[in-house]
Amino acid sequence: MANYPEKVYINGRIVPHHEAKISIFDRGFLFGDGVYEVMVQIGETFFYGKEHLDRLVGCLKKIKLDFDVSTLPKEIERLLTASKLNAKDCLVYIQVTRGVAVRKHSFPKTGKPTIIMYATPFTLPDINQKSIATITTEDNRWHRCDIKATSLLGNVMANDQAAEQGMYESIFIRDGRVTEASHCNVFFVKNSIVYTHPADTYILDGITRQIIIQLCKDLKIAFREEPILEENLTTMDEAFLSGTTTQIASIGRIDDHLFDPDGSIGPITRKLQQAFLELKRTYKETPMTT
């Protein structure tokens, strides 16, 4: 079937996607009781692969799910071989749930996790040249957005709200402050200073977000982890999104406000995009041990 991966890894087995099955009593299916990770391979190298797996370790600890992530690099290699994606640009999705148990809210005393992975061809553009249109929406999600949980209904509903209006993304507002977007982190620029919400429980601390913070330090761009007030959105000079597949994408519009009517990308955003491109070209992979 079009757009589905050819092979799926499930609990040590690699099978055609139409043969991949889980129990209806898997807690990931019943409760969204699990976490996930997404990373990209550029040629032979996973871009910040170790950092992605380290985050997976952290999220598993936060939900008290015992799984040895150090087993994954060899299994990812097996999956890539079966998918004929060794040394090719691709995206890898990893999901770990609490496994199969009789439906009960409290964690089961026994059982083992369900591990699912797949890889699909995916090539990042050198620079994301898009000027993104967004809306704002109230952040009604829970208070542990720092966990990369599979239970994404709040994010999905917000993104669908944007799609219905012909927009790409929804930017969340919580208590009058911008937190993040439905599947991206969000940054603003004012007077050549870059702002983004601090990495607390209201946002996911994105790997690309972390890279941008380091790039600001390297480029001597002033940077502050401070939330932007909703009432100040239209006073910002630039805005951009970040994410593993989004990379760094300029925001051209939030609701009815246009940041640059001619669609050009702001100078700070452009500078960070160029630095991110150079980083991809020169990146040396750290072994994906955890």
TrEMBL record:
SUPFAM superfamilies: D-aminoacid aminotransferase-like PLP-dependent enzymes. GO terms for molecular function: transaminase activity. GO terms for biological process: amino acid biosynthetic process; carboxylic acid biosynthetic process. Keywords: Aminotransferase, Pyridoxal phosphate, Transferase. One of its GO terms (cellular component) is cytosol. Its cofactor is pyridoxal 5'-phosphate. The keyword Zinc does not apply. Belongs to the class-IV pyridoxal-phosphate-dependent aminotransferase family. This is Aminotransferase IV. The lineage of its organism: Bacteria, Pseudomonadati, Bacteroidota, Flavobacteriia, Flavobacteriales.
